[in-house]
Amino acid sequence: MASLAGMSDTSGAGGPRPERAVGAAGTGGVDDLTPLEQPSAQFAPGTAVSGPDPVLMPSRPEDWPAFLRARIDDQVEEAAVSVETLREAPSGDRVVLELWNDVQVALARAGAAASLFSEVHPDAAVRDLAEQGLQRVQQLATDLLLDDAVYAQLAGLDRTDPQTGADVFEGDDDAETARRVLAHTLRDFRRAGVDRDDATRARLRELAAQETELGQRFARGIRDGRTVTRVPASAVAALPEDWRAEHPVAEDGTVAVSTDYPDTGPFLTFSTDASARRAVAAASQDLGWPENDEVLRELLTLRAEHARLLGYDGWADFDAEVKMVGSGDAVMPFVDRIAAAAEEPAQRDLDRLSARARAEHPDAVIDMSSWRHWAEVLRREEHEVDAQHVRRYFDVQRVTAGLLEVTGRLFGLHFTEVPAASWHPEVSTYDVSLDAERIGRIHLDLHPREGKFNHAAQFSLTSGLRGRQLAEGVLVCNFGRGLMEHGEVVTLFHEFGHLVHHVLAGRHDWERFSGVACEWDFVEAPSQMLEEWAWDHRTLALFARDDAGEVIPVDLVTRMRQADELATAVGVRRQLLFAAMSHVFHEEVPADFAARTAELAERYSPVGTLPGGHMHAGFGHLVGYGPAYYTYEWSLVIAKDLFSAFDAEDLLAPEVARRYRDAVLVPGGSRDAAAMVRDFLGRDHDERAFEQWLAR
Predict the structure, then answer these.
(1) Could you say which of 307, 362, 525, 530 would form a disulfide bridge with 635 (CB–CB 3.0 to 4.6 Å)?
(2) Helix-helix angle 261-270:371-383, to 10 degrees
(3) Rounded to whole angstroms, how far apart are CA atoms 550 and 544?
(4) Which residues contact 275 (CB under 8 A, 6 or more apart)?
(5) Residue 111 burial (10 A CB sphere; 0-12, 13-18, 19+)
């Protein structure tokens, strides 16, 4: 949204603005699809404020350390009190599980705040404080899962009465859910090693603490490893005008291109200078290197030891046990199956890119520094789609307002911008309501700055709990402050899908199942499906306008879709390289990460890496997703199947969207993902829709 987000900000500047609301029309109808007149247009009545209060953040920068300490330390203390009460509770009493839920709520509050503010707060000292807090929270969580007394109390609930045959949850309104919480919790204890001997448990504690610290170091190396490549002014001549305005020519005749993706993405797409593109691409490949090289090695080695102490063959097998894939052995066969399906269309597109490049430069090579550029050239020539022309329809403020309008119409939500203090003046805050009840609050932090998380992700601030705690989520991105490329619009829709999921699944009684709490290799599917709306003209016509007020033409959107198909399979193969890296690195811990990456690139993606690069050092998902980056393609297969249930001619019709909302998003983690998908589709999911999409 706007650079001043309508709140008391952390610098003390600015002030509150009036509330405004966007979202579902009062009737939920979609017949009047006129474009948005202004980003701040009124689409719905104000949100009814009821239920739990949101988190109140400081309005003065000097208050942040105290706020964060309280947010972390008070919740850690609250968790400790609940643990002691749990220990003293009567054995076999249902209250034990409720107390365990209290523990999880407190730890989640502390951990979410620590994780978020370690990545987004503009003050490095506050980020450091948050990192330290996260270490304490994760250490306590580890200690609890290795506490045999706490485990014994919970395990005592996993039984039936010998006389009646009833379990302790018999007769409860949510007995089935409570039993699921208990089963998952006992599994967590086993996977933590509670049943191991004292020496092994002590070592597991050490490993968990070291893994947390190494993971933070790896993320910090990426976040703080931003570098700049200076290129000749001539290399940016073909870049968009607003990009060039933000990148002035220095006295020495050069322009600075940073490793932030709002810099590198447009440069690699539009610059006609092959050597400059290669230099910028090489810099992006070395993000976090060399420091992260040994950090990663140590982390992977510790994870391997951790898994073996628990009786698993390796971390990949340990990780896969609780995912849809089920087993580490099933990951690479899936990757190879998708790679085989994408091989012919990817090679076809690569041949076309090579032929076009060599027609102009006989020695041209298609690699990670050039494939975007030549794909853009072909899109212009074959489909008359010029990304610079397209981006004039996508002002970031108008796109954001349109996104709220679209998701509001689909899912029956209202978004009301509210004055609220936050960590930075560019953050905008919205209350989210459904059926006149506030069910959540979202914060949008969309633009890059020094020291900020430098990719795109949704973070939790609080989990939603029925009648107890409001769901609050944060969208953290790094888009420019003016016009967006359409690919960035797609990314914004994707990440917002996570945010909607977090809020809609925030009305559970159990922390364990609140928010995006389903199997981790399913979490991307709802967001990937929402990307489809960013390609639909009827949807884009709500907000995609140029400065003269002209709505993006329908034939242009059609040609954009056709042009996008040019490199679809290339993109899939490139994603499969990352999937293979994440899995193979955890399985092997290669002696030379760069050399192994090059081998995997040869097998999966010829546009995946440059010789001499160190892409692994900046691959942040190696920590978060671990060996499970296959998730993106696994989820995409399901997303394409989910989308097949919608009417492609009327994507704004609410009926199917509301059924999807209730079947897939609202349950959170309270049901297996496969069961939720089956409920929505009326059958088990399969790969047919994905294969059809890939073969277009």
Answers:
(1) 525
(2) 60
(3) 8
(4) none
(5) buried
User: What is the separation, in whole angstroms, between the first and last Cα of the chain?
Assistant: 36
The torsion angle over the Cα atoms of residues 319, 180, 188 and 297, rounded to 10 degrees, is: 20
Query: Is the distance from CB of 268 to CB of 281 less than 8 angstroms?
Result: yes
Whether pTM exceeds 0.70 = yes
Beta bridge partners of 482: none
| Cβ partners under 8 Å of residue 313, min gap 6 | 307, 328
Residue 187 Cα to chain centre, angstroms: 26
User: What is the CA 172 to chain-centroid distance, rounded?
Assistant: 35
**Residue 263, amino acid:** D
**CA distance linking residue 301 with residue 304, whole number of Å:** 5
Read off the DSSP letter of residue 232: E
pLDDT at 166: 66
Reply yes or no: is the peptide bond before residue 290 cis, omega within 30 of 0: yes
The answer to which of 31-35, 199-203, 208-212, 490-494 has the lowest mean pLDDT is 31-35
Rama region for 51: left / alpha / beta (φ>0; ψ in -120 to 50; rest): left
pLDDT, tens digit (0-9, with 9 covering 90-100), for 421-478:
999 999 999 999 999 999 999 999 999 999 999 889 999 999 999 999 999 999 999 9
473, β-bridge pairs: 442, 460
For residues 685 and 179, give the distance between their C-alpha atoms in angstroms, rounded to a whole number: 26
Query: Mapping DSSP to helix (H, G, I), strand (E, B) and coil, where does residue 408 land?
Result: helix
Q: Following CA atoms 48, 49, 51, 57 in sequence, which dihedral angle do they give, to the nearest 10 degrees?
A: 150
Task: Give CA–CA dist 76/341, Å, rounded.
Answer: 49
Please choose, from the candidates 223, 242, 239, the residue with its C-alpha nearest in 3D space to the C-alpha of residue 231: 239
Coil, helix or strand at residue 465: strand
pLDDT digits (tens, 9 = 90+) for 356-375: 999 999 999 999 999 999 99
